[in-house]
Amino acid sequence: MKRILFIDDDFELGELLGSYLSGEGFSLHTAHDAMSGIEKLKEDTFDIVLLDIMLPDMNGFDLLQKIRNEYTMPVIMLTGRSDEIDKVVGLEMGADDYVAKPCPLRELAARIRAILRRTMPAKIARELNAPTKVDPAHKIIIGSMSLTPSARSVQIEDSPVQLTSAEYNVLEMLTSNAGALITREQLLEDALGRDPSLDDYVLNVHMSNLRRKLKHCAIIKTIRGNGYLLAIPEQIPQQVMHM
């Protein structure tokens, strides 16, 4: 069973989620404050974290930053507040997705599955009904940037680039189709596992983060009204190789 750490001080919601998600093939472990969540992360291994913004002993954003400093598992932020800026801040700080409470349990389970399909190794992905074949030696090289899909890692001039799982998904899709237009709908559905008909600013935030982290090595162009494409700056040799 895939292990979920639920960090939220809502005891009733924890019990409800635990009961529902166990029937969906997940094992939910709860922490009702930030410090308990940190201790559980140190003591055990989890596949994904559900993190509430409003915690009794620490702001959820501060805890997210601590998690991102030490762990790479996906994080879904839970927010009961209507302020849209909270969602943007969470994504900018490294959350992979957000869910506004109250959220239909079926939708939450679908979000969790979508993220895990795109972040877990091939064997686990097959268990989640997402058949995939990954060659461990395969690399995608564009200029000074290289991606290793089997390790979900990115390097620029041999220096690692820290990306969230959502950012990596978007970048891999763009680099695998370098120079070609990828529509917003394709990125939302295939890279982020979101319903394209409910398009919001989530993709915009991930694109902004990618542009900041990639700096000069690659350019993500916005094709207004259509989507995005990955181009290579003129000062970098026009090198696109699949190894």
User: How many H/I helical runs?
Assistant: 9
Side by side, the strands of the main sheet go 2-1-3-4-5
Structural class label: alpha/beta
Measure the end-to-end span.
Answer: 34 Å
Uncertain parts: 121-134, 235-243
The overall pLDDT, averaged over residues, is 83
Biggest sheet: strands, sense, closure? 5 strands, parallel
Percent range of helical residues: 25-40%
Radius of gyration: 18 Å
Strand content: 15-25%
Shape: globular
Tally the beta strands: 13
SSE string, helices as H and strands as E: EHEHEHEHEHHEEEEHEHHEEE
Question: Topology, pairings included?
Answer:
Layout: E1 2-7, H1 11-22, E2 26-31, H2 34-43, E3 48-52, H3 60-70, E4 75-79, H4 84-92, E5 97-100, H5 105-119, H6 122-127, E6 140-142, E7 145-148, E8 153-156, E9 159-160, H7 165-176, E10 182-183, H8 184-191, H9 202-214, E11 219-223, E12 227-231, E13 240-242
Helix pairs in contact: 4-9, 7-9
Describe the structure.
Helix 4 packs parallel to helix 9 and helix 7 crosses helix 9. The chain has 243 residues and is α/β, with parallel strands linked by helices. It is 40% helix and 22% strand. The protein has helices at residues 11-22, 34-43, 60-70, 84-92, 105-119, 122-127, 165-176, 184-191, 202-214; strands at residues 2-7, 26-31, 48-52, 75-79, 97-100, 140-142, 145-148, 153-156, 159-160, 182-183, 219-223, 227-231, 240-242.
List key phrases describing it.
243 residues; alpha/beta; five-stranded antiparallel sheet; 13 strands; 22% strand; globular; disordered C terminus
